[in-house]
Amino acid sequence: MKRAALVLAAAVLALSGCAHGARTGAGASEETTAAKPARRGAPAPPAADSVTVGLWRFEENGGAHVADSGPFRLDAVAGTETRTDFGRFGHARVFHPSLDSFVLAPYSPAFETPGGLTVEAWIRPSAFATYEDMPIAARWTPRAGEQSWLFALVGRRLKPPTVDRPSPGYHDELVRLGSLGVLMFAFQPAEAGAPRAFFSSRPIELDRWTHVAATFDGQVVRFYLDGMLDSQYATPGSIRPCEAPLVIGNFLDPRWLTDFGGDLRAAQAPDPTPYYAFQGYIDELRISNRARESFPGAEVR
């Protein structure tokens, strides 16, 4: 096993070990499996069902451990520059412009979904990225062969002299057809060829909770905003499997991470500039191994 994978797995196991004592029954925590109560008249949070791969509710009161309410228990670890706050339902994770602002779930074979994919979350961005984009969630790293899929918001794409330093350009080609604030879903085809990127037709509003989703069934990519179909694109193929972890709220190379001192940080990054850090809130991130066609409770009321 690669050294980076050992570091990440050890960090997650160490952090999650203190939470296992509260689990009952088949090993599931009542706190993490129960749906969060919705406010009167508000939509309900998503549930873990038979096609759920992972469901990160971000319901923790703080700390680095991030529990998965899905069937595979893909618990994650948060970087030092995220915190919890009131969210769309209960608590949410707040992300900041820092390279240490992320949530990471180590690679699991459960992340490979050849039958289809849905990535969805409630988000409340506070600003758009200065550079190409800011990921909501992705299995996509700078390492060769570690690009599977990327779900993000397109940023302002500023360049010098408007900004002090140029972007490293990791996502330049992906976002070139996207406009500011729209959703982007990109994937690397299993077949030979360049990555494919697609965009929602409408931008996301700042400082407002929006349910966002991207689905792919092997034939069509679809975007949903607040439970309603926004746009769709025919693109036959399949998503390339790889050993990339799931990174929420940022874009980084796992080799940059170290748990020296007890916290998982990007201390070994050659450049600490947070080019792709999400800014704002993310809540109720759910990944499914099918292309969902409806999102009960996501509609605005």
Can you describe this structure in just a few lines?
With 301 residues, the chain is mainly beta.
Provide the number of structural domains: 1
Q: Report helical residue fraction.
A: under 10%
The count of β-strands is 16
Largest sheet: 8 strands, antiparallel
Query: N-to-C terminal Cα separation, in Å?
Result: 49 Å
Shape: globular
Task: From the alpha carbons, calculate the radius of gyration and give it in angstroms.
Answer: 18 Å
Question: What is the name of the CATH topology?
Answer: Jelly Rolls
| SSE arrangement, N to C | HHEEEEEEEEEHEEEEEEE
Q: Which runs of at least 5 residues are low in confidence (pLDDT < 50)? A: 1-7, 9-38
CATH architecture: Sandwich
Q: In CATH, what is the class?
A: Mainly Beta
Task: Enumerate how many helices there are, as a single number.
Answer: 3
The average pLDDT is 88
Instruction: Estimate the strand proportion.
Output: 25-35%
- Based on secondary structure, the structural category is mainly beta
Structural summary, described in words:
- By secondary structure, the chain is mainly β.
- It has one domain: Jelly Rolls (Sandwich).
- 8% of the residues lie in helices and 31% in strands.
- It contains 3 helices and 16 strands.
- Strands 1, 4, 5, 7, 12, 13, 14 and 16 form an 8-stranded antiparallel sheet that branches.
- A hairpin with an 8-residue loop joins strand 10 and strand 11.
- The longest helix is centred in the first third of the chain and has 15 residues, at 3-17.
- It is globular, with a radius of gyration of 18 Å.
